[in-house]
Automatic annotation (TrEMBL):
Keyword Chloroplast: no
Name of this protein: Aspartate aminotransferase family protein
One BP term from GO: carboxylic acid metabolic process
Organism per entry: Nonomuraea zeae
The keyword Lyase appears for this protein: yes
Gene3D superfamilies (UniProt xref): Aspartate Aminotransferase, domain 1, Type I PLP-dependent aspartate aminotransferase-like (Major domain)
Cofactor: pyridoxal 5'-phosphate
GO molecular function: aromatic-L-amino-acid decarboxylase activity; pyridoxal phosphate binding; transaminase activity
Family: Belongs to the group II decarboxylase family. Sphingosine-1-phosphate lyase subfamily.
Sorted UniProt keywords: Aminotransferase, Lyase, Pyridoxal phosphate, Transferase
One Pfam family here: Pyridoxal_deC
């Protein structure tokens, strides 16, 4: 894009934004079952948007310059701590940053020279990202392939003298099940190792499900041995994107998450987060959302979510060839197929206006589709089940994706670094995945089938090139 010779009007710009968004997935209504969280309450969204805009230009870099940031963060973090067993927190931009800070704090509190993290294979990749950035080894532990939960005894066997942090999930994203937090906390405590509970999804959901009548096991800082926990407010807090909290049981550990630098002649540098300058818009949006919904609003949303999840699990189980994986305690549901290619099913559902999130097979867990049930899902759960049933029937009729002979082996052995983005795009187009500008939205079944057949390292290399081609120069 070249800059226009003169400035454009707001009307013109908003028309252009509308054009650019024409092929985006809808963020309201519940037909997109990942990435977005919808209360179905327009007034809550309006309140969050107004507060977000009011705080948009406030800079969180220096809380002494903008005391509103301090007061809002105290209120937001305090509300989260009140629900999750206390602690001392930091407001962050999302789950990945919350996790990054938890891992940094554990690393900086340790004297290990070759530090490692012990975590289930179902733990979020944000831990791998943190480990990559911070120079830490990951020790991945398999999960039980019936329950999809990690076993405490396997965690205990994996913990060694260089372990600086043990991780478990409440719930894990892939199958929506809660790891045995109390048992793992006992293991970590006995080993003298900090224990982080990743409740990015569940931290602001599970308390309200419990209040609505669900049986939720203890999972937060009230459990002896849990030393930190992450909780996203832009998930089931329904706040605008860019809102999460990480809590530490010990304020000294929170200080290990901070960064300060006095090694230059400029302004004072002290950061609570990975970012330095950052808009207070997300903080304002989160604060307003919590205030607009209140305890009663979240309990009502939890009740609707429980009912929708129960209907969805029962309905999917009644569709021939589909089965729900595990017994999720939360409102995340994953289902696999027998005689049905779930990647084809996802394309069929997309053609009908619904997005179901594909998940690749890994560590003995089959390829599946993932659904995040939110506050708005109940009003459309019957329509969703109808689409899943129709899409499953169409996928069965179409049959599974058939990849050209030798394609997987070719991709696995290919030196992707020797190809420029144009050559990679040509290769993708040759198998029916045209990523070039103007080609439109490709069906993803072929892409997912190729990725599913590759080992993890090759998947990662292909995904990097995929992203590079999409964004271009």
């Amino acid at each position: 894009m070249n800059l226009p010779p003169t400035g454009r009007t707001t009307e013109d710009l908003l028309a252009e934004v509308a054009r650019l968004k024409a092929h985006d997935l809808p963020v309201r209504g519940g037909q997109v079952t990942a990435y977005v969280y919808d209360t179905g309450r327009a007034e809550v969204n309006d309140a969050a948007t107004a507060a977000y805009l009011e705080m948009l230009e406030v800079n969180c870099l220096d809380p002494t310059a903008f005391p509103s940031v301090v007061e809002m963060e105290r209120q937001v973090v305090g509300a989260v701590a009140d629900q999750l067993g206390g602690g001392h927190g930091i407001f962050t931009s999302g789950g990945t940053e919350s996790i990054m800070l938890a891992v940094k704090a554990a690393r900086d509190a340790s004297s290990r020279t070759r530090p490692n993290l012990v975590l289930p294979v179902t733990a979020h990749p944000a831990f791998h990202k943190a480990a990559h950035y911070l120079g830490i080894e990951v020790v991945a532990v398999p999960v039980d392939l019936e329950t999809y939960r990690v076993r405490a005894r396997d965690v205990a066997a994996a913990v060694g003298e260089d372990t600086i942090l043990v991780v478990a999930s409440a719930p894990s994203y892939p199958q929506g099940v809660i790891d045995p937090i109390e048992e793992i906390a006992a293991v970590a405590s006995a080993a003298g190792v900090p224990f982080h509970v990743d409740a990015c999804v569940g931290g602001w959901l599970l308390p309200w499900l419990r209040a609505a009548g669900a049986e939720i096991p203890p999972f937060d800082l009230s459990v002896p041995g849990v030393t930190s926990i992450s909780c996203d407010l832009h998930k089931f807090g329904y706040a605008p994107k860019g809102a999460s909290v990480v809590l530490f049981a010990d304020p000294a550990m929170r200080r290990k998450a901070y960064f300060a630098s006095a090694g230059w002649p400029g302004y004072t540098i002290i950061n609570a987060t990975v970012q330095s300058s950052r808009s207070a818009g997300p903080l304002g949006g989160a604060w307003a959302t919590l205030q607009a919904l209140g305890r009663e609003g979240y309990v009502e949303l939890g009740r609707a979510t429980l009912e929708a999840t129960a209907k969805l699990r029962e309905g999917i189980g009644a569709i021939p060839g589909l089965r729900v994986l595990g017994t999720p305690e939360s409102s995340l549901v994953a289902f696999a197929g027998t005689g049905i290619d779930v990647f084809v099913l996802a394309d069929e559902a997309r053609a009908r206006g619904w997005f179901l999130q594909p998940q690749l097979s890994y560590a003995g867990i089959p390829a599946n589709l993932h659904i995040t049930v939110t506050g708005v899902t109940l009003t459309g759960v019957d329509a969703m089940l109808k689409v899943i049933a129709e899409s499953a029937e169409s996928a069965r009729a179409r049959g599974p994706v058939v990849l050209p002979d030798g394609l997987v082996e070719l991709v696995a052995e290919l030196d992707l670094e020797s190809l420029d983005d144009a050559a990679f795009a040509e290769l993708a187009a040759s198998v029916g995945v045209d990523l070039r500008p103007g080609a439109g939205q490709p069906e993803m079944a072929v892409v997912n089938a190729v990725l599913d057949a590759l080992p993890a390292a090759s998947r990662e290399a292909v995904l990097v090139r995929f992203l590079s081609v999409i964004y271009g120069s």
